[in-house]
Amino acid sequence: MSQVNSPAAVTTADDYRRMPEGPPWYQLIQGTLYMSPSPNRFHQQVVGNIYYALRNYLADHPLGEVYVAPLDVYLTDTDVYQPDVAFVRRENSRVLVYEGFVGAPDLIVEVLSPSNSKLDLGPKRAVYARFGVKEMWVADPVKSTLSVYRFSEDAEKPAATAAVGDIVSTTLIPGFSLGVADVFRQ
Predict the structure, then answer these.
(1) Residue-wise DSSP of 19-83
(2) Predicted TM-score of the model (pTM)
(3) Most buried one in 132, 133, 164, 177, CB count within 10 A?
(4) For the chain, what are the domain ranges?
C-alpha cells in the first residue's frame, strides 16, 4: 500500500467522502490516504472462500449480513477502512448505511498481502479493537494460517492461530465453523 497524501497533511472522513469513486481504491488510516494495487489472484480466492462460506451459512441462518471489499467502514474522523470481509449481527445492523458502515462491524477479516500486512496488523488492528470490532480474523496466505483476535480478551495477540487441518468458529455466528483448508483452497 502506498501513501498518497503528504505526512503533514491530515485527510478527514469528510474529505474522503468527497473523493471520486474508485478505482483506484483508498483507505484512510490515521489521517493518511493509502492506495494499493489490486490484490493477487490467490488473495482474492482466499477472500472469496471466506465470504462464500459465511454467505452460504447466513442464507440458512439469518443472523446478520456479510460484505466483501471494497466497502467503507467509517470508524473515526481519520480512519475509514475497507476490510476484505465484514460481518454485522442483525442486532447491530444500525451501523449499516448507504455508504457502508458507520461504526464497527462485529467481525472483520483481513487477508494479508505484502503491501498491506504492516498496516493490517498495526494501526488498523488497534483501531478495530478500540472502536468496537469484536473479532478480527487474519488470513496469511504465505503461512496458510488463520489468526483469530478476540479483542475483549487481548487486543495485541491472537486468541488462536489455526493451520490447515484445524477448524475455526466464532461465538458471533452460532453454529458456524470453517476449515482452514477450505480458506486456502485454490
Answers:
(1) SPP-SSPEEEETTEEEE-PPPPHHHHHHHHHHHHHHHHHHHHS-SEEEEESS-EEEEETTEEE--
(2) 0.94
(3) 133
(4) 39-183
